[in-house]
Design a protein that fits this description.
Layout: H1 2-18, H2 24-30, E1 34-41, E2 44-51, E3 54-61, E4 68-76, E5 82-88, E6 91-98, E7 104-110, E8 113-120
Antiparallel strand pairs: 1-2, 2-3, 3-6, 4-5, 4-7, 7-8
Protein name: Secreted protein
Organism: Streptomyces kunmingensis
Keywords: Signal
Length: 122
């Protein structure tokens, strides 16, 4: 029981230490795999990772700490998009989908600005 409590305390401490200014390092800790694409736009960026047949994406806001509308979506060709949308202070996502060897479309939004990849990773 003590080990479980200490594990939770360490995890909470790491989240506080990393904080919202961690940028790309934060995205890397949220998604498994290697970074394959960064889709930048005026209010943020959407970072795409791949590991095996899985694709993961997270949208990061340029201006953190302020609650604002954000979203990220990943769609494997032939499937419906998987979306995380809401009012967040740092990021939307991560979203992970199994794409196999199919193309994917990734979209990100922060505030009124957005980005779309088109079909990628084919």
């Amino acid at each position: 029981m003590l080990v479980l409590a200490l594990t939770g305390l360490v995890a909470a401490t790491l989240l506080v230490v990393a904080g919202p200014g961690a940028g790309s390092a934060q995205a890397a800790s949220l998604c498994a795999g290697h970074k394959v694409r960064t889709l930048s736009f005026s209010t943020g960026k959407t970072v795409v990772y791949k590991r095996g047949g899985y694709v993961c994406a997270v949208t990061l806001a340029k201006r953190t700490g302020v609650r604002q509308t954000m979203s990220v979506s990943v769609q494997a060709r032939g499937n419906r998009p998987v979306v995380d949308a809401g009012r967040f202070t740092h990021h939307a996502g991560p979203i992970t989908v199994h794409a196999g060897h199919r193309c994917v479309r990734v979209k990100g939004r922060v505030g009124s600005k957005s980005v779309s990849s088109g079909w990628i990773l084919c």
